[in-house]
């Protein structure tokens, strides 16, 4: 029963967000730019050389990926946004497996890191299903690359690419760290910034432009073509706008809640500190005031969160004629908020 519950939770993904990202990332120009800017084996190669390593659909534009649901006899299925088999640009070398995920909403850091590790581990372990023997598997184990496009990262990480990999250290050479020969799992966090930023990495500039909300589609298309040799359709730009808007809304909500909590905390701390008239009283007052202010800020953020998703759910019901329960499942709304959202929807009706 526990395994089935886990599988059900994994299936309750935000379908619209996932489909939007899949539409974007399977475009050959965008995917080749992302791979060329991040994956070491492809860095520095021209666009056409990278595209030669991709498998294109009959339209000559869409990159063919694997089924997004990875089955396993023992671990159950796992859902990934987009997984691609890339031919190595070096003749004679094995192909690579590249998985690309979009992360729009904030997650607990430990949960996010564990999710990244688990997904990458599955890309390795699931290769066993492609071979008839362990000997064959060990001789043909392929390198995997997992790229996480973070649409709403912490401010300190914006416009950065973070690389995680396995390292090796020997006891007779303390302090010396080497790239491990066991390393078959590269993990990259690509932290998107704003269009106005000037990141060092061109691939970050491309993503900032693609997901920008302050440019119309015509200007965005012209800039993508001029600066990054990317020719995209209006459909892809609309999907990118939708994802960028969602990430921006979530960031605004977090920032407003944070500022409101801090300001109310300062005011209450000063008030109580003056009443006490002692240094200790002021310090304690500020401490308690900040705590109360942050709590009220969180309440405000929760209220805005509920309002935001109520509007989303109502739109889904009108556009697609689905139930409230199905909409909540698709939006992957945390269980702690569902009762408040359902109650508010009843009141609105």
Overview of this protein structure:
By secondary structure, the chain is of the alpha/beta class. Helices cover 54% and strands 11% of the residues. The strands form 3 sheets. The chain has a 5-stranded mixed sheet, with helices on both faces. A two-stranded antiparallel sheet has the order 1-2. The chain has a two-stranded antiparallel sheet with strand order 7-8. It is globular, with a radius of gyration of 24 Å.
Strand percentage, roughly?
5-15%
Query: What's the gyration radius in Å?
Result: 24 Å
Spans with pLDDT under 50 lasting ≥5 residues? 1-13
Range of helix content: 40-55%
Q: How many beta strands in the DSSP annotation?
A: 9
Largest sheet: 5 strands, mixed
Strand order of the largest sheet: 3-4-5-9-6
Count the DSSP helices.
12
**SS-based class:** alpha/beta
H/E element order: HHHHEEEEHHEEEEEHHHHHH
Number of domains: 2
How far apart the termini lie comes to 36 Å
Report mean pLDDT, rounded to a whole number.
80
Shape: globular
